Each structure stands twice: as C-alpha cells, then as structure tokens.
Amino acid sequence: MSSLTNKQILLGVTGGIAAYKSAELVRRLQDLGAEVRVIMTAAAQQFITPLTMQALSGNPVHTQLLDPEAEAGMGHIELARWADLLLVAPASADFIARLVNGAGDDLLTTVCLATAAPICLAPAMNQAMWKSPATQANLAQLTGRNIVCFGPAEGSQACGDVGPGRMLEASELAHLTAGRFATGLLAGKSVVITAGPTREAIDPVRYISNHSSGKMGYALAAAARDAGAKVTIISGPCNLATPEHCTRIDVESAREMHQASLDALAGCDVFIASAAVADYRPATVAEQKIKKTGRDSMTIELVKNPDIVAAVAASEPRPFTVGFAAETSDVVHYARDKLVRKKLDAVIANDVSRTDIGFNSDQNAVTIITADGETTLPQASKSQLARELIAYLAKLI
Ligand code: C5P
C-alpha cells in the first residue's frame, strides 16, 4: 500500500477552473500522510484564494518569485530542495508550454527548473486545447524528460464541451502521487536499519548520548519500504513516528542495539547502520543517583562499546552491509578507512560540521563509497536523498 508518510509535496496550482479541486487535493494528500506546501501562479489566484490554500495546508502560500521576505525563509531554491515531489494540479496548457521552454519568469516555473524532485502534472483544459498539436507536442517533450502526466479524464467540461481535459479527482491524484514513491527495487528483500542515538547510563538519571535525530535512518526505512522491502528499524531514543508498515524495535544502549541487531539477522538481506552509536559507555553504572556533595570534580571511566556494524559484516551468512561515516574533516578519507576496516559493502559519508545538513537538519548531502569508487548525491531533503540512496544501493545489491 502506497503512503505519503513523511513526504513533502509541493503543490503547484496554475490558472484554470479545476483549481477549485486543488483545495480538496491538499486534504487528500495530507490524508495519506504528506506535508503540503502550495505555490500559486498569478492566474491561479483569479480562481481560488491563497488564503484557502494556506488554511488547508497549514503553511504560507508562495506566490512571488522576487519576494525579499520569502527569500529569507522559503525562497525558490529552498522550496525546490524541500520538495520530495512537485505536483502541478491543475496544469494549464500555458503552464505546460512554459515548462517545455524552460521558462523561469515566475515562482512555479523557476522551482520546476531548480528542483531535483520528480515533477508530476495533472493537466486540465478544454478538450480542443488538450487535443491541439501544440499541446500534444509539448507533452511528448515533457514525457521525454521523465515528467509524468496524471490524466486527464474524459467527460463534461466547465465550458460545456465533452471530451478529454478534465482534471482527475483529488483522491485519485493523491493515490497516483503516493504510487510514484513505490519503486519495487527491493521487492522481497528484508532490510534492517539502525537509527538514532544510543544512551549510555551513568546512573539511574544520567546518561551519555549525542545529537543524532534519527531522521536519516527513518527516511531510509520509509524509502526501503516504498521500494518493496520488509523493514525493521532498530531505534535508539528519538521522537519520530514509526513509518507505516515498518517494524520498530526500541533500544537504549549500544549493547542493546548490538543484541537486537544480531537477533534480527536471520533472513536479513540488507543491513544499514545509520545509528550514531556511542563509542564508549561508563565502565560501571551507579545504582543510586551520584551526589555532587563533597566533589569538585569527577572522573567517569569509559569502556569501549561493541562495533555493531562490524559484527554484522563479520557474521555468516552476512547481509549486504552499509555503514555511515559522520565526519567533520577529511570525510571521504575516513569513510574509505571505515569501509576497509569494518569490511563493509558501502559507506555513506556525510559532513556533520555543516549546520545546513547532517544531524538535526531536514537536509543532507552524502558521498557513497564502495570498493569500486565514489558517488556524490547533492543536497536534498532527507527523504528525497533516502530514495536516491536506496535506489543506488538496490543496484549494488
Ligand atoms: O566507527 P564509527 O562510529 O565512526 O563508524 C560509524 C558507522 O559504524 C555507522 O554506520 C555506525 O552506525 C556504525 N557503528 C556501529 N557500532 C558502533 C559504532 C559505530 O554500528 N559501536
């Protein structure tokens, strides 16, 4: 079953009477779990107000390309990066023509040029305009660029004509959108993903941990599920909803994560270690809360935790094993060292010294390192990047 859980859908609305259905479409996309932001062209605002779309989406509506306020917050490049998928509904004949020509004279066309996310169109126009050789030639060009058309449907039109050109209904568009995320690349595979931080207890109330949010691991889980895999997340403590249809095993410490990972290996085809596992834990855990009275300083002895991903890579039979390398300098160099030392099939390297990507950010950029070479995936939302990573790993497997 396709879902849009954790997916960020940018809805472009262009000028056509079917724009009244776009309001409903926001709701239907949300029903499937999507967060929705809306861009409206000037013509769209003649048919339906930005206020309606703002109230329904729960986000400000974007209408201007050159808007100093928007540029400080969500300007065209941020919107282009934010989107996991850009759906233009309705897509008018004029918008389609401008898209074909690579126009960038308003916000929506500019975002279309700037986004790496898939673009889907729900055309809506008079049947004669739809059938016109110009529109058909334009659509053929867009198909060649992997831009997908949903519909249009046939039937009676607002202008009184009957024929092709009606925009599909909102619920059908929402399901077609969700279907774009289902790739089948890992159909029948079992994938185990560690995610989030671990907590290493000092005493009953204190622990050592790190800033990992778990977002990248959870995005990978959703992407692997969309690719048809059976997914288990072994999760350290984090405040994220479990992606639908994924199994989640909650753990706290590295040793619990280690045990849960080994227990999950039977039948596991792919193991992805995205968790930020604490390298060390206190040698002893105080039974009672440690008191500060009479202490000006304190020393905690730490001992090494088991290396989970290395243990998985050394198991027999071993799954295709992927590690992460979160580094602050010499990222690729250290990642390659991990690939060899831990005997991994691939390492996903990211630079956590940058505040715009990495730990708590919704964005990331990574380099995938294998014995055969390196591939860099540029900055994108973690869910978009997760899909690209899963597609890449599926090819390696
Ligand atoms: O050794 P380092 O922590 O830099 O390696 C990072 C990779 O190893 C990540 O994939 C992380 O999930 C994994 N790891 C692990 N167990 C540890 C430490 C790291 O699985 N104890």
Summarize the entry for a quick read.
By secondary structure, this protein is α/β, with parallel strands linked by helices. Helices cover 33% and strands 24% of the residues. It has two domains: 8-178, 3-Layer(aba) Sandwich (Rossmann fold), CATH 3.40.50.1950; 190-396, CoaB-like (Rossmann fold), CATH 3.40.50.10300.
Distance between the termini: 24 Å
Q: Report Rg.
A: 24 Å
* Mean pLDDT reading: 93
How many strand segments? 19
Beta-strand portion reads: 15-25%
At the first level of CATH, the class of the largest domain is Alpha Beta
The secondary structure category is alpha/beta
* CATH topological fold name of the largest domain: Rossmann fold
Which runs of at least 5 residues are low in confidence (pLDDT < 50)? none
- Work out the count of structural domains: 2
Helix content: 25-40%
Order of the strands making up the biggest sheet: 12-11-8-13-16-17-18-19
User: How would you describe the shape?
Assistant: elongated
Write the CATH homologous superfamily of the largest domain. CoaB-like
Specify the biggest β-sheet: 8 strands, mixed
Under the CATH scheme, which architecture of the largest domain would be assigned?
3-Layer(aba) Sandwich
The small-molecule ligands in this entry are: cytidine-5'-monophosphate
How many DSSP H or I helices? 14
